[in-house]
Design brief:
318 residues; Rossmann fold; 7-stranded parallel sheet; 27% helix; binds flavin-adenine dinucleotide
Length: 318
């Protein structure tokens, strides 16, 4: 029986959706290992929904607010809590902050970590992590040796438990970090983060210029909860912010629907999106590599197809 610690993350006081997925994964893993506790640790906010966290799978929520967004403080707090509660596994969502904390917590506990996992199992008395490697060309299964493992989980690969339970919230003392994040600039436009959204419309160099982005936005506006993504060529050209870049040096996404417009399908872009459930490619070159990975393909000029697609989506009312 193993207890599992999940480090929560919030933005503007709201718990990020990937945290509830991580809590759900922890619940399954705890149950598979014999029914341990799932302990969630919040270090950024005091605004927590005990019912939502309980439903997702958490038994206890530890509230260590008061240290702002200091990564070193949060990691030190998590490492201390992991020791105090003798947990066998620490899980985090594979967000930018989660990736930062994963290494820090592992270093504190002098153990290894498995990053960006897409599956988590309990086999032969230990946790088994599945993670894509070599830009998604191969899948590995890894174990972390030692008494405690640390792992980050990719968004949209796990689900909250969906049970009827309310987690118990307990305030605890926070470790104070040396560094402090003084400001987090809010993403403009009010769209979900591309790494967490279940629907993504992404644009590439084929869109021609930043001035053509409203065509892509009109499609995204017609799809509820849709995020915008971009290829690196677009980001390097300064057409879109790096926060929207999908790929090896951007964000890894696994949405239900990924619409790639004017994107050739370079291996570095595929590395960030080829685990999407349904991929729609719109490209004027029928030989573009993206079509080899697409569930549906449209060969044609994005300037004509995007307005027609937005109009049809508006009619259908998705
Ligand atoms: C170390 C390294 C890391 C990298 N990391 C990333 C990364 O994280 N993410 C990433 O995306 N790339 C990354 N790249 C860059 C990658 O190799 C490609 O250069 C990049 O993905 C190409 O972007 P693109 O598909 O938008 O542009 P292009 O390759 O130029 O493709 C444009 C496509 O648009 C189509 N097109 C043109 N006009 C139209 C039109 N009117 N209508 C429809 N289609 C049209 C063309 O047929 C073409 O297929 C990385 C490269 C390296 C070396």
């Amino acid at each position: 029986m193993s207890d599992i610690l999940v480090i929560l993350e919030s933005r503007a006081g709201q718990l990020r959706p990937a945290c509830l997925e991580t809590v759900g994964a922890a619940r399954l893993a705890a149950d598979a290992s014999g029914g341990g506790q799932v302990i969630a640790l919040a270090t950024e906010t005091t605004e927590l929904d005990a019912a939502a966290l309980g439903a997702a799978g958490a038994d206890q929520v530890l509230l260590a607010a008061g240290q702002g967004h200091s990564a070193d403080g949060a990691a030190a707090t998590a490492a201390r809590v992991a020791t105090e509660h003798n947990v066998a596994l620490v899980l985090l969502p594979s967000t930018v902050r989660g990736r930062d904390l994963t290494g820090r917590v592992a270093a504190h506990r002098k153990t290894g970590f498995a990053a960006d996992c897409t599956a988590l199992d309990y086999q032969d008395g230990g946790f088994l992590f599945t993670r894509p490697v070599f830009a998604g060309k191969a899948i590995t299964q890894v174990r972390v040796c030692g008494s405690i493992a640390v792992a980050s989980l990719r968004a949209n690969h796990f689900a909250p438990a969906g049970r009827s339970a309310v987690a118990e919230i307990t305030p605890i003392e926070a470790e104070i970090g040396v560094g402090q994040v003084t400001e987090i600039s809010a993403q403009q436009g009010g769209r979900p983060d591309v790494a967490e959204a279940s629907r993504v419309v992404a644009g590439g160099r084929g869109l021609g210029s930043a001035e053509n982005w409203p065509l892509l936005e009109a499609v995204a506006d017609a799809i509820p909860g849709c995020a915008l993504g971009a290829s690196r060529a677009v980001v390097d050209s300064g057409w879109r912010p790096h926060s929207e870049q999908v790929g090896q040096t951007g964000k890894v996404v696994s949405p239900e629907l990924y619409i790639a417009v004017g994107i050739s399908g370079a291996i570095q872009h595929l590395a960030g999106m080829n685990s999407s459930k349904v991929i729609v490619a719109i490209n004027k070159d029928a030989e573009a590599p993206i079509f080899q990975h697409a569930s549906y393909g449209v060969v044609g000029d994005a300037m004509e197809i995007l307005p027609a697609l937005a109009a049809e989506l508006a009619k259908v009312g998705v």
